[in-house]
Amino acid sequence: MNNMKLPEIKEKKLIKEKEFVKVAKKVRESMEDEAKYLHKKKTENGNDSNPLNILNFY
Amino acid sequence: METIQIPSTFLTSIKDKYLLLDTNLFRDAAVRPSVFNEFFNRLKSSGVSLITIDLVKYELLKGSSDLEKYKAKEKLINDVVDSIIPMIPQIYSNVHGLIKEYGIEGTAVNITDLFLGAMLMQYKPNIFLITRDTTDFIQRIFDLSSIINVPHAKGIFTYGIYQYKGI
Prior knowledge:
Strand content of chain A: under 5%
Strand order of the largest sheet of chain B: 3-2-1-4-6-5
Helix content of chain A: 40-55%
Oligomer: heterodimer
Helix content of chain B: 40-55%
Distance between the termini of chain A: 42 Å
Structural class of chain A: mainly alpha
Number of helices of chain B: 7
């Protein structure tokens, strides 16, 4: 079953914090938009399917 | 700065191996980028390869409110992972096997999680999964190798580290 090998990764690239924080901010904004959209849809049709509970924690 | 505590036994067992990241890791990293940046870099520096699959990418990318945010998500994933592991035909066959193993307990299992489980089956013992969705990876099928707790403003996020139990 486990006869295949995963690709060898010779050089692992470290994440640059400053750039990562900037990108994360944009992603967070999108997650907030998505959570609002899902909440609106849930209110409209009573469908309880919000997978983004992240906003409840922060 | 706050850092995520990684159990030393886990670091030893995963050295020079692969850690498969579930979608919630990327979402959590977006919320606390400095903390997760340090966590991911510490793993990489310890010889761990961070990987994921396209299905995880799709889960994160869908719903992006505009192209700029879509690209930001794509960059976030690409910055973190060392490789996206391609699907091979055996993975699909493993998913069928897993569905049979889960039986009734697979009723509510997320499809992406089945594929992550199939990757664990395929590449055991060189691969571990980290996820906050700990209910989909039942311990009848997967070994809970380690637990990582990350405190946040209103509680604690608990991540399970799993390996496939079977042969």
